[in-house]
Amino acid sequence: MIKVSIIIPAHNTAEYLKKCLDSMINQTIKDIEIIVVDDASEPPIKPTIYEEYKEYDNIIFLRNDIALRPGGARNRGLDIARGQYVSFCDSDDWVDLNLYENVVKYMDSSNADIGMVSMKRNADHLKNHIYKCKYEQLYTLSSATAIHILSGNYDMGINIVPACINKIYRRNFIEKINARFEEDIYFQGILYSILTFLSAKKIICVPHVTYHHYLRIKSITQSFDRKHIQDFKECFKRMKLYFEKAGVFEKYASDYYRILEIYLNVLVSELFEYVYDEEIQKKFIQEILKAMREVVNFDDYIKYITAEKLRQHIQPHIKNTFDVLY
User: Fold this and answer.
1) b/e for 204-238, b at 16 or more Cβ within 10 A?
2) For residue 52, what are the domain limits?
């Protein structure tokens, strides 16, 4: 029986894929399958990698002739996954060698739908690696608690990152709720987390194992264009629909707006980091404001935000009038 299916979408990342695969084939648990989905790389990944790994019959190579983006590539892997559990790994990342054995042990004993592990950000230009989330003991969370921590509404001493890559899912759970990735937008990771969190009966944080995320300068997240704004708008339209279809938008409206704030801050930061022409910056700001009008009900927003948070939006640089007047 296959315990874990690990789905790895890859697009023009052959130079990084070897380290990723080495962290998989050397796992302390052996009953795993590794599904590499080459998402229309040029040149194709298989000829450069296949010879080195052809002895491993648990590695499956798939090829998309037309790029489906990470969400579509992950969906193609889900179509053939046979493991009791399913996990996702980006092709330029890697994991601790005992990660899947530890996660399976905890998920088997707890009957959890979703398991989460620590995530460390690695980059050549960073002197110190940063933990985006770190779990040093087992935590068992309800669906609501996990969403409240993810959004920042709850401060309970741990972080939950929106990405799917540091999470392991019980396959019969995601099949039961038909959890598929949105295929055409950048922000499919947060959407998948919200979709699965909403239906999960039990979510656990597994201690002492780490997913290593490599911050690659030329990745699609290290850029900015109009599609980022369009996808921001589409992401939050779809997220709201997830909540509404579950009949829980009122319950999670504050979380929705807090997550939206986080992604808006990321969007504006990326704009000013990667676009240098002031006139183009101003045009993009106009487009962002238009997008905001489509995803924010401002009467609702004011209802769910604190007065202090609203003040910070209106006068972010002023703490008291004494500083201004004197």
Assistant:
1) bbbeebbbbbbbbeeeeeeebeeebbebbbbbbeb
2) 4-214
